[in-house]
Design brief:
The protein is built from three helices and five strands; from the N terminus they run ββββαβαα. The mean pLDDT is 87. It is 65% helix and 10% strand. Strand 2 and strand 3 form a beta hairpin. The strands form two sheets. It has a three-stranded antiparallel beta sheet. The chain has a two-stranded antiparallel sheet with strand order 2-3. It is elongated and about 130 Å long. The longest helix is centred in the C-terminal third of the chain and has 85 residues.
Length: 162
């Protein structure tokens, strides 16, 4: 059985492309299971064709390049100059937009650099504050230990004086 692709479909047995003719094995159940639904419906993806139609279609070469179009003989030089003027204006506008975008990008890079510097300063300040807090905690722990020792000595002296 020969089929021609009316639209591209991806199936479990392969991809059927638009305009390509395929020879399908009628005896293979797996292939028929995936191909038959594509032949049915209001807008099928595949079309069943005869062997003669398939051979005829495969015998004719396929053109992959578009045909050249002749210039419009009605177009005058002033029309063409107008089109060239429009194209130049569009090019100038695009260049201006590109320049503006480059300027914005440079400004953004400058701002990013400044923000990175501020972030580094903030991280250094945080690290210094953490170091200071650690020192204070160690000092407090030592002071509490001394207080406990002094309280013990006071209690011993008060007990001895009684």
């Amino acid at each position: 059985m020969f089929v021609k692709g009316l639209s591209t479909r991806h199936t479990a047995v392969g991809t059927f492309r638009f305009g390509v003719i395929y020879e399908i094995d009628d005896t293979n159940h797996e292939v028929r299971k995936h191909v038959l639904p594509l032949l049915q419906g209001e807008s099928p993806a595949l079309e069943k064709i005869s062997k003669a139609q398939a051979e005829k279609a495969m015998a004719t070469p396929t053109q992959f390049t578009p045909e050249a179009t002749a210039p419009d003989p009605e177009a005058t030089a002033s029309d063409l100059r107008g089109e060239v003027g429009k194209a130049k204006a569009a090019q100038k506008d695009a260049e201006e937009k590109a320049d503006a975008a480059e300027k914005r990008a440079a400004e953004a890079e400058g701002k990013l650099s400044a923000q990175e510097d501020e972030l580094l300063k903030a991280l250094e300040a945080r690290d210094a504050a953490l170091h200071s807090a650690t020192d204070l905690e160690q000092g407090m722990a030592a002071a509490q230990k001394e207080i406990a020792e002094l309280q013990t000595k006071i209690a011993d002296l008060q007990g001895a004086s009684k």
